[in-house]
């Protein structure tokens, strides 16, 4: 059966990608990888403004993510309001104080030591934008009922990855910040109970004196294992 005679319940349309010559395809892959390999998570931001269009473009990129049953279970809430940012900082620091100072955290302390993070989250005031990705476990439908969404974390995680990549390609830095617990973000940003905060992204240019910890990426041989069919003899 060819695509044109395949019966459909829902409208379909033809789709093709340009068939790149192999060398061109690999060249683009190399270029894309080299670009992404320059990305680092940043905790020291410049207060310089970032145009709202950059945030819109990054969310347009995120919004192309594949999602379970195409339910697109994300909302991105962006604020450049200094008062809102400060309320978020104060609430995040309160959670983080509990995390760093009050809980028993031997495992965490070991895992996080290299990052030298602490309960102070100045970047939440300094970065010109805070963007919070919310995950919708359910989506309210126009008839007032709730649609159950599938693979919500996977879908929103992929969308966040595209968001991060889009920011990077625009020369902008971010941090995947997850104050724990972060339910306060629903209150401060006035979001419905059908969605939960997923990741808080400060967005801006790196500060002039920004530093990042020296870290290695996992070697390809550890990140990728092939099980290929044996070469013919
Ligand atoms: N939420 C804390 C702790 C923290 C946790 C992980 I996992 C990190 O990669 C970094 C920090 C904080 O933001 O400081």
From TrEMBL:
Domain Nitroreductase positions: 37-205
GO molecular function: oxidoreductase activity
A Pfam family of this chain: Nitroreductase
This protein's UniProt keywords: Flavoprotein, FMN, Oxidoreductase
Keyword Oxidoreductase: yes
Domain of life: Bacteria
InterPro entries: Nitroreductase, Nitroreductase-like, Nitroreductase/BluB
Name of the featured protein: Nitroreductase family protein
Source species: Kribbella qitaiheensis
Origin organism lineage: Bacteria, Bacillati, Actinomycetota, Actinomycetes, Propionibacteriales
């Amino acid at each position: 059966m060819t695509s044109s005679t395949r019966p459909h319940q829902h409208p379909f349309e033809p789709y093709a990608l340009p068939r790149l010559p192999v060398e061109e395809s690999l060249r683009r892959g190399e270029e894309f990888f080299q670009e992404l390999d320059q990305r680092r998570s940043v905790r020291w931001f410049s207060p310089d403004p970032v145009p709202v269009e950059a945030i819109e473009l990054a969310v347009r990129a995120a919004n192309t993510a594949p999602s379970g049953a195409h339910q697109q279970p994300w909302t991105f809430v962006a604020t450049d309001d200094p008062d809102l940012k400060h309320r978020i900082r104060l609430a995040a620091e309160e959670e983080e104080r509990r995390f760093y100072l009050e809980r028993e955290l031997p495992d965490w302390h070991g895992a996080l030591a290299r990052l030298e993070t602490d309960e102070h989250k100045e970047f939440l005031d300094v970065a010109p934008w805070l963007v919070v990705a919310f995950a919708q476990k359910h989506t309210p439908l126009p008839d007032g009922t709730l649609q159950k969404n599938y693979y919500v974390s996977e879908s929103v995680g992929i969308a966040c990855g595209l968001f991060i990549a889009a920011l990077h390609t625009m020369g902008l830095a971010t941090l995947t910040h997850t104050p724990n617990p972060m339910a306060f973000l629903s209150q401060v940003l006035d979001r419905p109970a059908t969605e939960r905060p997923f990741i808080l992204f400060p967005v801006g240019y790196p500060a002039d004196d920004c530093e990042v910890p020296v870290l290695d990426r996992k070697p390809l041989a550890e990140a990728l294992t092939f099980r290929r069919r044996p070469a013919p003899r």
